Fold these 3 entries.
Entry 1:
Amino acid sequence: MFCNACGGQIQPQFNICPNCGQPIGALAAATPPSRLERHLRTLGILWIVAGALCAIPGFVLMTISSVARLGIPAGENVGRFIGPLILSIIGGSLLVVAAGGILVGWGLLKHQPWARVLAIILAILSLFHPPFGTALAIYTLWVLLSDGSGSEYDRLTRAA
């Protein structure tokens, strides 16, 4: 007999898997989902939405930077170079942050081992982007840094 959660071999008389601690058989259906399991899907979706919303101004700024040279008079060589460069840097930065948010959201939904650490790092950086970034950061830290969430997330990654 094998455990449905971790795949480890178990004896028929066991009620709990000795490898991962998951209930076996009828007890598994009676076990309610933990706090982390209840909030992890919502958190993943919120990070994907936040990443997609961050990508929109990134694409707009990249488009404006490529068209901005046409609107600056020909005599302003410094302006024709610096203005589009600054817009490209800001737009590119927003696209990198958006890709990170989408990647973290996907990783949390798929219970990837690296997603928890990356989500905590992005949450700390998002604390300084009020109001929505701060709210998402607080929610992320509340879900992923609670007591026992690290070991529980590791258990979920092994089961996935």
Entry 2:
Amino acid sequence: MAFEFTPDLLTGNATIDSQHRELIAAINKLLDACSKGKGRQTLNSIAKFLYDYTNKHFADEEKLQLASHYPDYVNHKKYHEGFKKVVRDIIKELDKDGPTIVMVGKVNTSIGGWFINHIKKEDVKVAAHIRSTKSQV
């Protein structure tokens, strides 16, 4: 199942929204590669890109949170750290076992599902906070 960047995922921050689009595309690419039984090298390459880009995105997002004094920064950062661990674990599993139906399910739920849910529940709050701090200046 491919994930789609729908209007309810827009945060209103061009940088964050652009990065979210890239991450969803990378998740879809990884899902597609897993479901087609691509080789471990291909899967590892896609998964590594996803991990590296996630790290960049989370760092950018956290800088915005710190600059705007986001009140739930500590918890939001914990969510990010937990997600990075999940992605690292999936990369290790892909390297060890290669593509499997179980792996497609894990990527779908543990990466794709988590990420979409995180945008809808957490990132929209961050974006609203950033907008509110800008309007007070």
Entry 3:
Amino acid sequence: MTTLKTIACLGVAASLLGVSACASKTRPPGDPNVCYQVQPLKNGALKYNKMPSNQKDLEHCAAALEAMRLKFLAMGGSQKMLVGAYQGNFIFLQPDGIFTAPTLESHRYLALVRTGDGRLALPGAMPQ
């Protein structure tokens, strides 16, 4: 009897994993060379605010978002973290660096690190 219960539990667990794997994921726009600042709305939706100029790569988009974040901080803002999007990838500006992921729910990968004076650099470009 315990073998049947075990098999039934394993079947339920496998079906739950299958359903969670198919859950919809939040993906950003994939427009070429367009950098967005992403603003979460109260209803859970995301608003994509187009940055004023085209960016040639993810690093330049992240730098433009960082410049915007610093400008708002200088004007009295308090938002230390920011989310952006570039060519189908989310960009997460955080105190410990800039991370990227293809969806909001995906694992985030380090794209740029902060130097000792707060500038951005490619990982491995700075001496340890």
